[in-house]
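Might you be able to consider the sequence and fold that I enclose below?
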Amino acid sequence: MQTLTLRCTLKPTPEQAAALEATVRLFAEGCNHALRVAKEHGEFRRFRLHRLVYRDLRSMGLSANLAVQAIARVGRKKGSRARFYQPTSCTFDQRTLSLRGEAVSLTTTAGRLVIPMKLGNYQRGMLVRARSVQGGMLTKGPKGKWYIHLSLRMATPEPPGGGGRVVGADLGQNALATLSGGVQFSGGLLKGVRIRYRNKRAEVRSRLDTQRTRGIKRLWERLSGREARFVKHTLHTLARRIVDSLNPGDTLAIEDLNGLQGRTAKRGREARHLHHLWPYGKLRLLLEYKAAMRGVRVVAVNPKHTSQECPRCGHTARENRKSQALFRCQGCGFQHNADWVAAHNIAQRAGSMGMGRCKPARILRVSSLHRLSSESPNQSALALG
């Protein structure tokens, strides 16, 4: 079992929208009051903070459960630097949120409201497969639209026994992912877009130093939002295509790169910046939860020398990695794509852990996340676009 978040658009009437607005504002006021008290007393522990502010929040007009949710939200913030809340969201639990067909029932300042949701086939399918709804978060978009982010408890299939394939995945910047099965996903577009947004932000930041106008601040927020949405979409697409290329019972092996951000001392300024932009942690989380829904195991192996070890003779040396893209063994002369060599070694290490069998392959093609290509139906399952 795992918990997934499903965002659905709400279709409130003008009266319901006004009630949602009032609820969100009151919830933010309650959070800010709890935060002020927490700072004054230096107490962010949830149960002790509850004793200090619960009666105040109830007297402000918050329901019992919304007051508890406001305290819980503040309790997750620690330290004197915690910022105050804007009236943009409100948290609900199972007592204050429930589903009524294709509508959601919410506890508001105007009482219990049943608000229709705008659902597509994907949302309907997720709601049908969900075991339960654990609550959700109400948010207001920049254009005044209302959204409900439902927390769904989903059943994950048990990976079938018998030992499936082991597929290694080497994650990087120039190539977002290279699979030991022979498919490589290009990262040039993502890298270029992030550099472009970085340059735009630098330009806007210089204008902020001299012109602190509302328009410049809004431009800064729009740039950050656009980049975040683009990166999120790209990572979801990449993770989905990787997982869809596997079968239930297979194992996806990746490198355990925890603490990667600290290993950039010898890089130049530009390289360090790009290195910190690489969202390895987000991609790993997406791979893990999407793989679990498909019955695919995800294991992390030791990343040491995966791109320097020869898959033929085992000779390991830094000189084997001739360039970013070329591997040439100084022991036996074996030559191949460096990213594929790393992916193959990752698969071999997972196979030695008893996860299954791995088969060698060659680079079949390089795919782009945002370029459509005419392929046969058999090939399209492995390519990105």
Residues 359-385 have pLDDT under 50 and may be disordered. The first strand starts at residue 2 and ends at 10. The longest helix spans residues 214-244.
